[in-house]
Amino acid sequence: MTTADHIGVFDSGVGGLTVLRELVRALPGKRFVYLGDTARVPYGTKSAETVVKYALGAARVLADRAQLGALVVACNTASAVALDALRSALAVPVFGVIEPGAAAGVAATRVGRVAVLATPATIASRAYEHAIHALDRRVRVFGIACPLFVPLAEAGWVDDDVARLVAERYLHPIVNGTARDVDTVILGCTHYPLLDRVIRRTVGRGRRVVDSASATAADVALALGAVTASRARARAHIEVLVTDRAMGVAETARRFFGDSVGRIARVDL
Amino acid sequence: MTTADHIGVFDSGVGGLTVLRELVRALPGKRFVYLGDTARVPYGTKSAETVVKYALGAARVLADRAQLGALVVACNTASAVALDALRSALAVPVFGVIEPGAAAGVAATRVGRVAVLATPATIASRAYEHAIHALDRRVRVFGIACPLFVPLAEAGWVDDDVARLVAERYLHPIVNGTARDVDTVILGCTHYPLLDRVIRRTVGRGRRVVDSASATAADVALALGAVTASRARARAHIEVLVTDRAMGVAETARRFFGDSVGRIARVDL
User: In this complex, which of A50, A147, A155 lies closest to B155 when CB atoms are compared?
Assistant: First the structure.
């Protein structure tokens, strides 16, 4: 792993930046190249077949751009349906966000009941259920598809009355329905931490809200650990690419990383 | 035009079916092939360059599928930015929805002030302003971008409290802001007629709400008129294609056209 040059990271849009932020914290001094596939966002309302095709295309763009030492699929939908295809296609380690998110959920629950908020494609794949049951068969999993959270996050409507009303609609099963006994809510889409505040307020203080970002970063750091330690004080080097103009990605990248991000380049897919 | 076999119609998703419905009424007995580019929906938040590329790809799929006598771009975003490119690429007449929508708005206003509700890409193109001013330079045009209306329409949340709140937010300039003197509202995106009821309720009864669907169909019928008359009692023949699985398209197509629509085929792009 010491020849690892860049860590490639991709998502359908702005959401994966929440994972990149944790990766940069966990792996200071590393070089990152991030792709937001904004020409084809969202992924989560599309079929598995289409998402596999898009994920392979995104990985190809990153591999053409830089010598990759690892690829992080910072998108739950792509992690749920395209991880095997990506591992077959690439010669480097490929990390997804489902298993770390599932592990965070299993670690957090005391009553053995968790809710997973995710895109329709991720919920349909049952990927969280399988990953959670691989860790602990006794945990009950309630999947809730929240398709409008991605356009809300991309539009920047993340903490207002519309976001609140949409959250109340989707999260009703947790607040006062079939999932009301859960004590842990997994944000199973990397866009959803951008709506973190409104989601926490809706499900109430008594419930823990976890996401896969920091757990994924810890997994990747463990795998690439030897390289990291020697550069612990170095500055991150982050290149951000998009497949279409995307104000949201530029703004969020600057907010998260400041000057560490150079000019955001547009690439063709 | 008498050799015209099929009329090709395309949109990014379900919205163009509102135009197809009017075309079927205006041109009974005609053969239609419709493409919903659901693998890449939405178009309206993407750049002009990307939308041109997608529109050319959609036209190619339709031309490969059937002998086209005409192409109707049943998507305002693509009509706003890709019409010239499509006309250069195709040997058949290409109809857009902007000019008919603009004409409907100019015909409807008594005070010479209209609002155009459309996607960010259509508003940025100023295509409605140009089309309206080509008809009447004195009409004042207020453009309002409503990016969340497309995901709401695709999700089927078209007449509920979320749709109402989103409409109130976007339409505030009309209800009580800089555009409050308009008497006419143009639905400048073919998805928006699906939210017709909530939009009408929000802007109030005193204002007329028009869209381009029936005006576009009348333009196309006029151009292909001779063929039509002789088949006035024939049944429509409608083939619907999608680039990805899309429940919304299937449901809306059956609701609009019943048995006239065969199996909905998925095509690759």
Answer: A147
Partnered with residue B10 across adjacent β-strands are B35, B73
Q: What is the ipTM score, two decimals? A: 0.88
DSSP A128-142: HHHHHHHH-TT-EEE
Two structure tokens written together for A155: 């539009």
Q: Which of A245, A247, A266, A267 would best serve as a mutation to test chain B binding (most B beta carbons within 10 A)?
A: A245
For chain A, domains (ranges, CATH) are 6-97+214-266 (3.40.50.1860), 98-212 (3.40.50.1860)
Dist CA B2 CA B128 (whole Å): 32
Closest in A50, A154, A155 to B244, CB measured: A50
Residue A160 to residue A166: CA distance in whole angstroms? 10
Tell me the mean pLDDT per 10 residues along chain B, length 269: 76 94 92 95 94 97 95 98 97 97 98 97 96 98 96 92 97 97 97 96 97 93 68 76 85 88 87
Q: At CB < 8 A and 24+ separation, what contacts does B53-56 make?
A: B54/B12, B54/B78, B55/B10, B55/B81, B55/B82, B55/B85, B55/B86, B56/B82, B56/B85, B56/B86, B56/B89
Q: Which two tokens stand for residue A232?
A: 């612990």
A19 and A72 Cβ atoms separated by less than 8 Å: yes
Cα separation, B11 vs B79, whole angstroms? 10
Catalytic residues of A: 75, 189
Residues near A6 by Cβ (< 8 Å), separated by ≥ 6? A31, A32, A33, A66, A67, A68, A69
Kind and range of the H or E element at A94?
strand A94-95
- B146 included as an active-site residue: no
> A31-36 and A237-242: which strand pairing?
parallel
Which of B47, B169, B170 to probe the A interface (max A CBs under 10 A)? B47
Phi, psi of B33 (to 5 degrees): -125, 120
- The span from the CA of B74 to the CA of B193, in Å, is 12
